[in-house]
Write a structure and sequence with these properties.
heterodimer, A: mainly alpha, B: Alpha-Beta Plaits, two-stranded antiparallel sheet
C-alpha cells in the first residue's frame, strides 16, 4: 500500500444518491414556470390589455397549469406524503419550505382569479390591480423561496450558500415563464407581442449569463470546498450538462439569436425560430436547476 | 446509582433544564472496534444499511510503516443547529438539555434537515419513512444511564456528560485537553468535541490517494 487510503462506512444511502434529487429539480423548474408566467401575464395585462391579450391569457393559464402539476410532485417527493397537510397549521416560520407552501397556495389562487380576469368576468374586473399585484408578490415569493431554501441550508454546500443563487433562481423563473409563453404563442401562429417577449428574454439571458459566471467565479475563489464544487461543474461529473446543456443550448445560442433579432430591429421574428429558441431556453433553465441542486450535493460532507 | 459510577450522567430533566449534554471523543483512545456502531444499532433498532453512529478511518504510509486513524461519528447536537432552522413542521427540535431530536410523528420526510446538516449526520429511516439520527440516547440519559455508544466503548474514548457543570467529568476533560469541533466554520457550534482531530485532518490533507468502502459502497473522498 502506498499513500493515504480513506475508508468510509457509508452511514446512509449509497454513492450518487442525494437527499434532494430529480423530483426537486422538476419542482424548482415548474414552480419557476408558474411564477414567471404569472408575472409575464400580469405585466402584459398591466402594460397593454389589448395588444398583449394573448400573452396575458396564455400566461394566466400556464401559471395555474404549472402549479397543478407542480404541487402533486412536491407532495410525492415527501417520504410521508399524506402529512403535507400538517404544513398548513404546524408551519415553522424559520423554514423556507413553510413560506414556499403559502406562496404556492397564494399563487394558485391568484392564477385562478387571473384566468377569470383574462376571460373578462365582471365580478373580478374591478379588482384587477389588486389581483395582479398580490399574485405577483406570491410569484416573487415562489421564485425566491426555492433559492432561499438552498441558500440558508449550510455553508458546507458552497454552491448553495453562494449569494448568486437567489438572483439566479429569480431570473430563471422569469426566463422560464417568458420562454414557455413565447413557445406557445409562436406555435399558435400569433405574432402579436412576440418581439416584446424576445426583447425581455434577450435582456434577462444576459443577466443570467453574468450571474452564472459570478456563481462559478465566487464559488471557486471562496474556499477549498467551493473550488472542488466549481471544478465538478466546470470539468468534473456535471461538466457535460453544464457546457452543452446550460452554456451552449440554454444561454449562448439564445443570446446570439435574440440579440441579432433585437439589433436588426426585426418587427416580427420568425415563429419557427422563436419556438426553437424558446425550447432551447427551457432546456437550459432545467439544466441550470439540475446543476445547482446536484452541484450543491456533489461534495461529500464532513 | 452513585456519582462516581461511570454509568451515572445525572437524573436531570430535558425541558427547562440548565444541562447541556455533550460528548468528548478522545481519538488517541479509539481502537476502531466499531462497538459503538453496533451498540447504537442494537439499542435504537436502527434499520439495516444505515447508522446513527459510525466510524470512519484512514490509512497512511507505505508498508511496513503504516498507521491507521479512526474518526467515530455521530450527530453533533449543535448549539445552533441548522437542521432545526429549516424543518418546516418543527419535527426536529432542540431539547432544553441540548439534545437535538426528531419527532417522527411530525416529520413529513421532506429531507430539508438532511440538506442542511453540514455533518451528514442524518439519514432517512426506511421503516418510519422519517428523518433519523443519533439522539444522544435521550431515553437512557433521562434514566441516568449513559448513551449506548459511550457505555460500550472499550477504550473509554467517549466521555459523556453535562458541559454546563464545571465539576462533571466531561467539563474537566475539556478544561485539561485541547479539544476541537468538526468543521467549526459552519457556525453550528457542535456539542461533540474531539481530542487528536488535528492528526486525522492532517493525514487527509496529505492527499487521499485511494478510497475504499465496505460492501462495495464507496464514498468519493475523505472528509473535513
Amino acid at each position: 500500500m502506498n499513500g493515504i487510503v480513506s475508508y468510509n462506512v457509508p452511514h446512509f444511502f449509497g454513492e450518487g444518491l442525494v437527499p434532494w434529487g430529480m423530483l426537486i429539480v422538476i419542482h424548482f423548474f415548474l414552480s419557476g414556470m408558474a411564477a414567471g408566467s404569472f408575472i409575464a401575464s400580469a405585466a402584459a395585462s398591466y402594460l397593454d390589455d389589448e395588444k398583449y391579450k394573448k400573452i396575458a391569457s396564455i400566461g394566466a393559464y400556464l401559471a395555474l397549469l404549472s402549479i397543478m402539476v407542480d404541487v402533486p410532485i412536491l407532495i410525492l417527493d415527501l417520504d410521508r406524503p399524506l402529512r403535507f397537510i400538517t404544513l398548513m397549521y404546524r408551519g415553522s416560520i424559520t423554514a423556507p419550505l413553510t413560506w414556499g407552501v403559502w406562496f404556492l397556495m397564494g399563487l394558485g389562487l391568484f392564477s385562478l382569479l387571473n384566468i377569470a380576469l383574462q376571460r373578462g368576468m365582471e365580478a373580478v374586473k374591478s379588482y384587477k390591480k389588486l389581483i395582479l399585484i398580490l399574485g405577483s408578490i406570491c410569484a416573487v415569493g415562489v421564485s425566491a423561496y426555492t433559492a432561499v431554501a438552498l441558500n440558508i441550508a449550510t455553508d458546507a454546500r458552497p454552491i448553495w450558500s453562494n449569494g448568486s443563487v437567489i438572483p439566479i433562481f429569480m431570473v430563471a423563473s422569469l426566463i422560464t415563464g417568458i420562454a414557455a409563453i413565447s413557445l406557445i404563442v409562436s406555435l399558435s401562429g400569433v405574432k402579436k407581442g412576440l418581439s416584446s417577449l424576445n426583447t425581455a428574454n434577450a435582456v434577462l439571458l444576459i443577466f443570467q449569463l453574468l450571474l452564472v459566471g459570478f456563481l462559478i467565479i465566487t464559488a471557486s475563489t471562496s474556499s477549498q470546498l467551493g473550488r472542488e464544487a466549481a471544478g465538478e461543474i466546470l470539468s468534473g461529473g456535471l461538466s457535460v450538462v453544464f457546457w452543452a446543456g446550460l452554456v451552449v443550448v440554454g444561454l449562448v445560442v439564445p443570446v446570439i439569436v435574440s440579440w441579432s433579432n433585437l439589433l436588426a430591429k426585426v418587427a416580427e421574428p420568425r415563429a419557427g425560430m422563436t419556438a426553437l429558441i424558446s425550447a432551447m431556453v427551457l432546456v437550459g433553465v432545467f439544466v441550470l436547476r439540475y446543476i445547482i441542486v446536484y452541484g450543491g450535493q456533489i461534495i461529500p460532507l464532513t | 446509582m452513585e456519582r462516581n459510577d461511570q454509568h451515572y450522567v445525572g437524573e436531570k430533566e430535558g425541558a427547562g433544564s440548565k444541562v447541556r449534554w455533550g460528548m468528548v471523543v478522545d481519538l488517541r483512545r479509539c481502537i476502531g472496534c466499531h462497538a459503538c456502531s453496533i451498540a447504537c444499532k442494537a439499542e435504537n433498532e436502527v434499520p439495516v444499511g444505515v447508522f446513527r453512529a459510525w466510524v470512519k478511518y484512514v490509512d497512511k504510509g507505505t508498508y511496513p510503516n503504516v498507521t491507521r486513524q479512526f474518526l467515530p461519528r455521530l450527530c453533533n447536537h449543535c448549539k445552533s443547529p441548522s437542521c432545526v432552522r429549516v424543518c418546516p413542521t418543527k419535527a426536529t427540535y432542540k431539547r432544553g438539555d441540548g439534545a437535538v431530536v426528531v419527532d417522527n410523528n411530525k416529520c413529513i420526510g421532506c429531507r430539508s434537515c438532511m440538506t442542511a446538516c453540514p455533518y451528514d449526520a442524518r439519514f432517512l429511516n426506511a421503516v418510519t419513512k422519517t428523518a433519523d439520527k443519533c439522539t444522544f440516547c435521550v431515553h437512557r440519559i433521562e434514566k441516568g444511564l449513559l448513551p449506548a455508544c459511550v457505555q460500550s466503548c472499550l477504550g473509554r474514548a467517549r466521555i459523556f456528560g453535562d458541559l454546563n457543570d464545571p465539576g462533571s467529568e466531561i467539563s474537566r476533560y475539556v478544561a485539561r485537553n485541547p479539544v476541537k469541533q468538526l468543521n467549526p466554520a459552519t457556525g453550528n457550534d457542535p456539542s461533540v468535541f474531539y481530542i487528536g482531530l488535528e492528526e486525522y485532518v492532517e493525514t487527509l490533507r496529505g492527499g487521499v490517494t485511494s478510497i475504499a468502502g465496505t460492501e462495495g459502497l464507496l464514498e468519493q473522498r475523505g472528509d473535513i
